[in-house]
Amino acid sequence: xxxVAESGGGLVQAGGSLRLSCAASGRPGGRFGMGxxxxxxxxxxxDRDFVASITWSGDKTYYADSVKGRFTISRDNAQxxxxxxVTTLKPEGTAVYYCATNRSFDCISxxxxxxxxxxxxxxxxxx
Length: 127
Fold this sequence. Notes:
0% helix; mainly beta; 7-stranded mixed sheet; 127 residues; 4-stranded antiparallel sheet
């Protein structure tokens, strides 16, 4: 049974930081890439913006331009865990953050190429 679960969201002031975690296990097919997406307020459930992606080995990462230099994606396969360190948060960063898995051996930003998603964790940035 595939399990993908995010944690670490919360309320933070603009300029602050958070560390989001994602525990992923049971995914069939061996090695897999992972990524983070977010859905802002008022958006449809499937309307999610790409945030960051990382390969199985962690040797490649890729970020949306809007978060580059402020967010850092990492993973530890021995712990079945991925993280997103978010710093210098802006009010427009308020969103539900989702982690997801994919079959690619490269970093990908295309939402439709991800197969398993978690339920999301809410991040609220106050101005």
